[in-house]
């Protein structure tokens, strides 16, 4: 059954990691290393069953291949899951044991933080392997990716405005921003600097108050964000918020935000297209985080990171071209861009990648 699945979705390798003494049960999935070593975060979650954990890691690792490919990175797709409760099951031994498994892959998989994991956990992983990004800045890590993600989202927004309205004057349009966390509040700041009218909502009242007092945003109720007369709906909180209940209510002509998995289903993506709303594919827009950590492999440089964020504009423009060329919805065009890039670049003979000292000579599959 597993090989059937691997055949269907094209995964290269699945590694089951077990260490009884450390209480470690983890799965590393390497989906595709055609473009480079597989990069993707480690998630810690109290999965109800091993099957649920396996499904999650297979789905997420494949998603990383597409995300990294569309982002234009020389990086493949992978992901890891640790089965356990982040609130009670964390220990030094667990993360070090996990780090040893990452090390055993010799650079085919490079890990990072994901849901349930923080920079302190990564410190333990880093004791056992250098194939880890998102470590503390003192070790050459890139720090909090959120400001980069917000800036990248702005680039994606500009490409989308241009596509929909024929100009990219951010301040000319109005925005409904849902979620004012790490990325959302930075995004609001960038919109405000460009003179935009902004509506905001969040379950956290303090964050709403801050957006109102510091950035002149107008607060609306949690559910009212879908009814606001704004040109752009910007989901920056949860996934699945574009669904059959919310879509008929949206007044926006553009959907562009940082949240992952914004479309509840592919059918909703088709419906968005039919209604003439331009959907900026989430994983292309919010690639700033992964772009930022990917630079750690070559030696992190903040300026290079900012420059790289601007490529998101071109990635989105390319997606819109493919959507028009092939007459397919934008969410499908993003996947097609990834597949085309993997195919074309995969045919080139690539030299071994330049690696930062801490990866020197050890990054393979590039
Ligand atoms: P965060 O946890 O800091 O912020 C999320 C915010 O959403 C919080 O303020 C929370 O109160 C709010 N929220 C939760 N449920 C809500 C609801 N029903 N209505 C309104 N607000 C609600 O997370 P973040 O790092 O800012 O990430 C935001 C989104 O962007 C997530 O989907 C994340 O996966 C995605 N993303 C983030 C990054 C990054 O660099 N941080 C990179 C790529 C993608």
Q: Topology of this structure?
A:
Layout lengths: L1 H8 L3 E7 L4 E9 L5 E2 L2 E4 L4 H21 L5 E8 L8 H13 L4 E2 L8 H10 L17 H20 L8 E5 L3 H12 L3 E5 L3 H11 L2 E2 L12 E4 L18 E2 L10 H9 L3 E2 L2 H4 L2 H11 L3 H25 L3 H17 L20
Parallel strand pairs: 3-5, 3-6, 4-5, 7-8, 7-10, 8-9, 10-11, 11-12
Antiparallel strand pairs: 1-2, 2-5
Helix pairs in contact: 2-12, 3-4, 5-6, 5-11, 10-11, 11-12
The chain binds nicotinamide-adenine-dinucleotide (NAD).
Nicotinamide-adenine-dinucleotide (NAD) binds next to helix 5 and helix 6.
The small-molecule ligands in this entry are: nicotinamide-adenine-dinucleotide
Based on helices, strands and strand pairing, what is the structural class? alpha/beta
CATH class (first level) name of the largest domain: Alpha Beta
Record field, number of beta strands: 12
Q: How many helices in DSSP terms?
A: 12
- Topology pattern, helix = H, strand = E: HEEEEHEHEHHEHEHEEEHEHHHH
């Amino acid at each position: 059954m597993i090989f059937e699945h691997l055949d269907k979705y094209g995964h290269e390798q699945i590694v089951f990691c077990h260490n009884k003494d450390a209480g470690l049960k983890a799965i590393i999935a390497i989906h595709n290393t055609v473009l480079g070593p597989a990069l993707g975060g480690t998630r810690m979650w109290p999965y109800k069953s091993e099957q649920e954990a396996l499904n999650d890691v297979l789905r997420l690792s494949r998603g990383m291949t597409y995300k990294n490919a569309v982002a234009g990175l020389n990086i493949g797709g992978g992901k890891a899951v640790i089965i356990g409760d982040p609130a009670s099951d964390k220990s030094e031994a667990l993360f070090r044991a996990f780090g040893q498994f990452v090390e055993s892959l010799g650079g085919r998989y490079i890990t990072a933080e994901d849901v349930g994991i923080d920079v302190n956990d990564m410190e333990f992983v880093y004791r056992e392997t250098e194939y880890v990004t998102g470590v503390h800045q003192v070790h050459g890590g890139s720090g909090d990716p959120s400001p980069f993600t917000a800036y990248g989202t702005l680039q994606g927004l500009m490409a989308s405005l241009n596509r929909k309205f024929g100009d990219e004057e951010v301040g000319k349009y109005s925005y409904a921003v849902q979620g004012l966390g790490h990325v959302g509040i930075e995004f609001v700041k960038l919109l405000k600097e460009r003179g935009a009218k902004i509506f905001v909502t969040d379950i956290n009242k303090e964050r709403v108050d801050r957006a109102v007092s510091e950035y002149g945003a107008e607060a609306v109720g949690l559910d009212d964000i879908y009814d606001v007369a704004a040109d752009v709906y910007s989901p920056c909180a949860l996934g699945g918020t574009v669904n059959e209940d919310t879509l008929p209510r949206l007044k926006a002509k553009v959907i562009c935000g940082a949240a992952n998995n914004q479309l509840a289903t592919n059918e909703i993506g088709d419906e968005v297209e039919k209604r003439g709303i331009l959907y900026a594919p989430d994983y292309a827009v919010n690639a700033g985080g992964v772009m930022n950590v990917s630079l750690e492999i070559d030696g992190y440089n903040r300026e290079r990171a900012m420059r790289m964020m601007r490529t998101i504009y071109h990635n989105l423009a390319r997606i819109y071209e493919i959507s028009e060329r092939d007459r397919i919805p934008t969410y499908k065009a993003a996947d097609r861009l990834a597949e085309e890039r993997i195919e074309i670049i995969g045919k080139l003979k690539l030299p071994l990648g330049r690696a930062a000292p801490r990866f020197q000579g050890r990054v393979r599959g590039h």
